[in-house]
């Protein structure tokens, strides 16, 4: 009964190991770059902001603010950027009947989510040791916000991937869209900083809800945050369904040479 499910898990697991080996190599740091790459970027941005900005921004300490924002950005952008080219980089694997495009996408999703999650944990521990942050005020809210952001990002990435499979020129737009997401995702500002009229409109964007939940868990109740998890969950579900339908509809456009 569970044999097909186990088989799918084994295929995805094998593809994850292959992806790690081909992308990061087997020598030097190797697999550690899955976590090391986002760590380096996050600490770099954090050091730059610490030098160029005051210790507090709108009453929020700069180090945890950058941590929660930039790690959220890494999770979102890696999902979008690396999922779009996953199929093109692994077309040869489709010669094997047991491997389907969804296996390739699932492997990259798990790899990017796992790498970003471990990097987030390490950065949090380092800042905790440096007394730049305190323990999360609400662990469940922190986990929920992180998973919610990943869910919305995954669905949006699947939509872009499905469109890129249908229209070749759309592949060049994916990178531009990921850059456009930076100012609208809420990673470098908080919703409470916006005027009330703008805030209500802005919250129709699904991405900042997960970011605000993460910040609410880290900063506590004394820092105002705004989020509607059910709305973001619903939009993320629609994104994922639409993305899977687009990919399934474009299956006949895949050519294995």
Percentage of residues in strands: under 5%
Helix amount: over 70%
Mean pLDDT: 80
- Element-by-element helix/strand order: HHEEHHHHHHHH
* Main structural class: mainly alpha
Number of strands: 2
Shape: globular
Count of helix runs: 10
How many domains? The number is 1
Question: Biggest sheet, strands in spatial order?
Answer: 1-2
Q: Tell me the Rg in angstroms.
A: 19 Å
State the major sheet.
2 strands, antiparallel
Question: How would you explain this protein's 3D organization?
Answer:
The mean pLDDT is 80. The chain has helices at residues 3-24, 33-52, 62-84, 86-89, 101-129, 139-166, 171-184, 196-202, 207-219, 229-249; strands at residues 56-57, 60-61. The chain is mostly helical and 257 residues long. A two-stranded antiparallel ribbon has the order 1-2. It has one domain (3-253). It is built from 10 helices and 2 strands. The protein is 70% helix and 2% strand. The longest helix is centred in the middle third of the chain and has 29 residues, at 101-129.
Layout of secondary structure:
Blueprint: H1 3-24, H2 33-52, E1 56-57, E2 60-61, H3 62-84, H4 86-89, H5 101-129, H6 139-166, H7 171-184, H8 196-202, H9 207-219, H10 229-249
Antiparallel strand pairs: 1-2
Helix pairs in contact: 1-5, 2-3, 2-5, 3-5, 3-6, 3-7, 3-9, 6-9, 6-10
Tag the structure with descriptive keywords.
257 residues, mainly alpha, two-stranded antiparallel sheet
